[in-house]
């Protein structure tokens, strides 16, 4: 049984992690969600209109913009859903894992082969998908969300259609497809490559690869892990774009007309990011990728690609 000190240390670690990660995650989500078309766009009447939204070219420029417009509170948008989900996981770990696992951070997904790992990962994704949608929308909404009023926040983040039929979140066009594609690539491709090139590492996580593995094989695997950024970064951008796209009973409705309340806007009258209109929604994974390229250019699919690259490398050797 965990002692009171162990629980306090665990909660302190959680608090520090959230304090550091929430602003960085929020910046990443906003940077990738920001709609920045290349040229003139057509309004509902078919007339050409110049784009007037913010043009942000880097992760750190977005971080500064969020702080300048919304202050420190803006950097912590999305804290509450992240905190709630983290507390649920923490309570699960305290109840179901032994003291040694918690003290040494040795918890990992069950080892059940490639197919078992794939099924486990997809199941975990399905459980966490609503939390992912809530967090991404809480980060990107221009409204000021109340910290402790979940009902009012739901009226802001979800359309009446979604509130009356919450399961429709799982039917968001393309969202499940992009999530499964991301998981499948990591599990089926990256792990298979690791098993083929570095079986010592795949079969023995504690193996000292730096001393006992061929530098040639290690270099090849490192390069392939880096190359995976070309596949995973666009999937992560598309995932965010689809998660914040709200579901309506009719395409004629838009985000504003379906609001039941008159929520307060954050900061100043200036929006931190520009969002694409719901009147011309993405219809799926492929459609989202094609429209991003046509409207914003290839570079939009690779925003903050270096963060994806760091994740690929660290995950490949973990």
Explain the overall architecture:
One of its GO terms (cellular component) is membrane. It is a multi-pass membrane protein. The chain crosses the membrane at residues 7-28, 78-97, 109-129, 167-190, 218-238. There is one protein chain. This protein has 318 residues and is mostly helical. The protein has a single domain (4-40, 52-105, 112-317), classed as Mitochondrial carrier fold (Alpha/alpha barrel), CATH 1.50.40. The chain has 14 helices and 2 strands. The chain has helices spanning 4-33, 59-75, 79-96, 99-104, 113-140, 150-157, 160-164, 175-197, 199-203, 209-212, 215-227, 229-243, 285-296, 305-316, and strands at 41-42, 48-49. A two-stranded antiparallel sheet has the order 1-2. It is globular. The protein starts with a helix and ends with a helix. Mean pLDDT is 82; it is low at 101-107 and 251-261.
Strand and helix order: HEEHHHHHHHHHHHHH
CATH class descriptor: Mainly Alpha
Total E-strand runs? 2
List the domain count as a whole number: 1
Q: Could you name the ranges where pLDDT drops below 50 across 5 or more consecutive residues?
A: 101-107, 251-261
What helical percentage do the residues reach?
55-70%
Largest sheet: 2 strands, antiparallel
What would you call the quaternary organization?
Answer: single chain
Radius of gyration computed on alpha carbons: 21 Å
**How much of the polypeptide forms β-strand, as a percent range?**
under 5%
Question: N-to-C terminal Cα separation, in Å?
Answer: 29 Å
Round the mean pLDDT to the nearest integer and report it. Answer: 82
What is the count of DSSP helices, taking H or I runs of 4+ residues?
14
Secondary-structure arrangement, i.e. CATH architecture: Alpha/alpha barrel
Shape: globular
- Give me the side-by-side strand order of the main sheet: 1-2
Query: What is the fold-level CATH name, i.e. the topology?
Result: Mitochondrial carrier fold
Protein structure class: mainly alpha
Solcar repeats: 1-103
Family: Belongs to the mitochondrial carrier (TC 2.A.29) family.
Subcellular location: Membrane
Pfam families: Mito_carr
């Amino acid at each position: 049984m965990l002692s009171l000190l162990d629980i306090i240390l665990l909660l302190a670690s959680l608090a520090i992690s959230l304090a550091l990660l929430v602003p960085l995650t929020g910046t990443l989500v906003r940077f990738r969600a920001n709609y920045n078309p290349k040229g003139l766009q057509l309004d509902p009447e078919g007339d050409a209109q110049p784009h007037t939204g913010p043009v942000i070219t880097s992760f750190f420029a977005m971080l500064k913009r969020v702080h300048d417009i919304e202050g420190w509170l803006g950097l912590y948008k999305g804290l509450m859903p992240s905190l709630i989900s983290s507390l649920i996981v923490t309570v699960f770990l305290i109840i179901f894992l032994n003291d040694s696992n918690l003290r040494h951070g040795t918890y990992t997904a069950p080892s059940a082969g490639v197919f078992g790992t794939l099924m486990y990962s997809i199941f975990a994704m399905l459980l966490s998908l609503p939390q992912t949608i809530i967090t991404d929308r809480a980060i990107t909404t221009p409204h000021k969300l109340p910290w402790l009023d979940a009902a009012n926040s739901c009226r802001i983040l979800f359309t009446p259609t979604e509130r009356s039929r919450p399961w429709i979140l799982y039917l968001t066009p393309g969202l499940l497809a992009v999530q499964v594609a991301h998981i499948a690539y990591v599990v089926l491709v990256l792990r298979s490559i690791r098993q083929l090139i570095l079986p010592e590492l795949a079969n023995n996580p504690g193996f000292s690869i730096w001393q006992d593995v061929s530098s040639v094989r290690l270099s090849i695997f490192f390069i392939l892990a880096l190359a995976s950024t070309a596949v995973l970064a666009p999937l992560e951008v598309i995932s965010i774009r689809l998660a914040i796209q709200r579901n309506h009973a009719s395409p004629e409705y838009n985000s504003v007309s379906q609001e039941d309340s008159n929520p307060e806007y954050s900061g100043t009258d200036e929006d931190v990011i520009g969002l694409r209109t719901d009147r011309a929604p993405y219809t799926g994974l492929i459609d989202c990728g094609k429209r991003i390229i046509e409207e914003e250019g290839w570079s939009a699919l690779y925003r903050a690609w270096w963060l994806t690259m760091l994740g690929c490398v660290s995950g490949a050797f973990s």
